Amino acid sequence: MTVHTPIETKSAQSLENKAAGADSAVAEAMGELQRAFAAFRETNDTRLAEIEGRLSADVVTEEKLARIDAALDTTRTRLDRLTLDGRRAPLDAGAPPRDAAATEHKAAFDLYVRAGESGGLKRLEEKALSAGSGPDGGYLVPATVEHEVLTRLARLSPIRGLATVRTISSGLYKRAVSVTEAAAGWVAEAAPRPQTDAPTLSELSFPAMELYAMPAATQTLLDDTVVDLDAWLADEVETTFAEQEGTAFVTGNGVSRPRGFLSYDTVANAAWVPGKLGFVATGAAGAFPAANPADVLFDLVYGLRAGYRQNAGFVMNRRLQSTIRKMKDADGNYLWQPPQGTDRAATLLGFPVTEAEAMPDTAANSLSLAFGDFRRGYLVVDRAGLRVLRDPYSAKPYVLFYTTKRVGGGVQDFDAIKLLKFA
Questions:
Q1: Residues 221 and 104 in one domain
Q2: HSE-CB for 90 with a 13 A CA cutoff
Q3: C-alpha distances in angstroms, 413 versus 179, 184, 206, 291?
Q4: Secondary structure letter of residue 337 according to DSSP
Q5: Burial (CB count <10 Å: 0-12, 13-18, 19+), residue 62
Q6: How many beta carbons lie within 10 A of that of residue 89, not counting itself?
Q7: What is the mean pLDDT of residues 269-277?
Q8: What is the model's pLDDT at position 43?
């Protein structure tokens, strides 16, 4: 008969209780979000009734609506964090399978991080003829750590989560795109086939720029063999990388960083040409039109071709989202709706909403709202290899880990993204 020790039983029970507690917290946050939106609708309806009856809303009602709106944002952020933590798998889950060489690399990297012993990593990278180490030094992290960092970035970095992501081995990715479509037509079975015009091709280049983070650790942490340093490193760099990427993919100018989609030339959507992003104007400088403000949202949606609308979504910051939450359609239904599940996004006109803080606030001529199929419209390129350089000297008694990755980005299909211009 097998006897289970109290330690094993306690450990299993602890894991079950932890999982149950996480599920309970997610369910509680989801309930709070639904209740907050119900209160928001009720208070906003009261505000609109006061405006209709007295031409202005009561100050107390406005303040109450602002508090509920802030609570909606807070609860949504909490729900996103709980959902992300619940999905976070062990470091090795889903990563490339380990062979003997990968196991040896991980052991050598662990020794380098803890004690600064780099002989094992040097020998391995020389054997592999690795080009991962740059002229300023550093060593490639194990594949499991790189995989985990990129997985977390896809969840934390708004545009990366929407865009197409390509991994490259060089510093530049090029792709050919067709500026004009090939001619085609119908002919009878026995009729001659006239020669058609060939499409005009253009080349787009996406260079990978260097992004860095520099987490610090105490020697006590490095000496503690129980601490998983791979997980620690991934935890430390994920937020820094995500914040920097999130800004660059939206507003980056392409100089030492990826090029954001808002940095490209724009043109009125009715006069759209390849190489520029089309926009729909609101008709009011820095604001929605006073009469029927939601109409411009419909214009934006239907300014995108049907083939792109199937997988399209909105991108905006939380302040603009707060304004749009108050809008209704002609039947009195709110255009913005909260997520219907922990794995769902809030929706606007039935399309998912992605919150990106790098999107600008509304101002005269601002491009504060984007709508499109970002999977087809925007490309992110990652150069394979995440590099770490150990620095025990610059910030004694702390040990710094100069961690770098190379990433680029830019628009790859200019017809797949449309912008709302507050002009």
A1: yes
A2: 3
A3: 10, 22, 13, 34
A4: E
A5: middle
A6: 10
A7: 93
A8: 81
Shared domain for 290 and 246, answered yes or no, is: no
Give the angle subtended at the CA of 399 by the CAs of 394 and 404, to the nearest 5°.
Answer: 85
Domain co-membership, 239 together with 206: yes
Tokens of 362: 């509304």
Residue 115 sits in the same domain as residue 35:
no
Alpha carbon 181 to chain centroid, angstroms = 31
Residue 32: domain span:
16-87
Q: Which pair of structure tokens corresponds to residue 51?
A: 């405006």
Per-residue confidence (pLDDT) for residue 128, from 0 to 100: 54
Q: How far is CA 87 from the centre of its chain?
A: 16
What pLDDT is stored for residue 109 in this prediction? 82
Residue 380 and residue 351 in contact, taking contact as beta carbons nearer than 8 Å: no
Distances (CA, A) of 230 to 125, 142, 245, 252, 403: 19, 8, 22, 30, 13
3-state secondary structure 281-321: ECCCCCCCCCCCCCHHHHHHHHCCCHHHHCCCEEEECHHHH
Residue 188 lies in a domain: no
CA distances from 396 to 266, 399, 405 (A): 50, 7, 25
**Identity of residue 328:** K
Least confident residue range of 136-140, 265-269, 355-359, 370-374: 136-140
